[in-house]
What does this fold into?
Amino acid sequence: MNNFIKKTLDFSKDLKDLIDKLEAEQTLSKEEWMTLIQHRSAESDAYLAERARAVQQKHYGNQIYVRGLIEFTNYCKNDCYYCGIRRSNSHAQRYRLTPEQILDCCHQGYKLGFRTFVLQGGEDGFYTDAILVDLISRIRQEFPNCAITLSIGERSKESYQAFYDAGANRYLLRHETYNQTHYSHLHPATLTAQNRQRCLWDLKEVGYQVGTGIMVGSPGQTSEHLAEDLLFMKKLNPQMIGIGPFIPHHDTPFANQESGTMELTLFLLSAIRLMIPKVLLPATTALGTIAPDGRERGILAGANVIMPNLSPTNVREKYLLYDNKLHTGDESAQAVLHLQKSMKNIGYQIVVDRGDSKNKKNL
Ligand code: 5AD
It folds into this structure.
């Protein structure tokens, strides 16, 4: 009997049954989710990860997708209690990339093989709809075969429509937490769970491929909240789900709160892989920040996307959402080489997917 089978026999049959049910039916009730979350153990986590990897391999083989992240502004009008670039943080050194700098990042990324650019920023009033429409149109024109992903927060449905019409295809907006009370524990009263969710449904209606997600172990988060988050994700059925541990930032009201754990994050990655088998699931920077091998462990728990930073190196340390954010200081090219190696070490391969299998090439 090999080690793994021995281990799986140790944990209660009920948990194994729940995991098998999740894999078979791709859903659980709120009570079942809470049971699984509250009673999970090293053994059940190992079994869950094993099943998640089987599903990941079935749909994606050993292929890992990359998306180039361009953090183009750290100005933000919001004051989220957890975030290092919140408006009230007067210690943050603010920066904005110009459209030319952003296009330059895309060009460099393209040369490295990236075919998806993620434009992420704080909610910065400088970037009006008109400026963004112009920028998106230019990227669309110069990179007709690339996906343009936006991650710029809450806007009106009309704005989302205008960006879509200009050529954006995807939008990332974490719901952060589904539960209204918990949402208001993490955000000032100007922001509501309801409006955040409204944005996500609007984005879907406009036609975007949508990404949502949460911080794992955020202050005040309970297993009931997590169960509600999982049910919301199931209902929204997004193309991507980004989750990473909460990590305190020293200049925020949550400076002294505990980080989320690696174990719970890996558990959730595996659970999400079984719940929405084909979802794109990044092993996030936050996961790579709480442990040096965090992203590799994320892949081994069922994740299949990595989002390397394409921002100019001199601004990277300014986009500090949380303390000690992983940044190697490497130029993008160097970082990609490192990533290729570390993925190869765990049996995976970074690919560029241009949409048809003939043009799929190794990066
Ligand atoms: N720790 C971990 N993740 C954070 N984010 C913001 N602040 C933190 C933090 N302190 C996440 C939020 C946001 C995404 C861009 O970064 O979930 O949606």
Notes: Confidence is low (pLDDT under 50) at residues 353-363. The pocket of 5'-deoxyadenosine is lined by residues 82-83, 174, 176, 215, 244, 246-247, 249, 286, 321-322 (CB under 6 Å). The first strand starts at residue 63 and ends at 66. The chain is about 45% helix and 15% strand.
